[in-house]
Amino acid sequence: MSNQEAKNRIDELSILLHRYNHLYYTEDKSEISDFEFDQLMAELISLETKFPEFLTTHSPSQRVGGSVTKEFENVVHKYPMLSLGNTYSWEELQEFDARVEKGLGSSDYEYFCELKFDGVALSISYDQGQLKRGVTRGDGTKGDDITTNVKTIRSLPIIIPKLTEAFEVRGEAFLSKDVFQALNEKRASEGEELYANARNTASGTLKMQDSAEVARRKVSCYIYSFLSENDLFQSQEEAIIGLKKVGFPISPTYKKCKNIHEVFEYITTWEQKRHELPVETDGIVIKVNNYAQQEELGFTAKIPRWAIAYKYKAESATTQLLNITYQVGRTGAVTPVAELQPVLLAGTTVKRASLHNANEIQRLGLHIGDFVHVEKGGEIIPKITGVDITSRNLHSEEVTYITHCPECGTELVRTEGEANHYCPNTAQCPPQIKGKIEHFIDRKAMNIDSLGEQTIKQLFDASLVRTPADLYELTYDQIISLEGFKDLSTKKILQGIEQSKEIPFRVVLFALGIRFVGKTVAVKLATHFGNIELLMNATREELIAIPEIGERIADSLIEHFNKEENKIEIKRLQNAGLCFIEEKEDLASVILEGKTFVISGVFSKFSREEIGGMITSNGGKLVSSISSKLNYLVAGEKMGPAKLEKATTLGIEIISEDQFLKLLENGDYV
Ligand code: IVH
Question: How far apart are the CA of 225 and the centre of ligand 1, in A?
Answer without folding.
Answer: 9
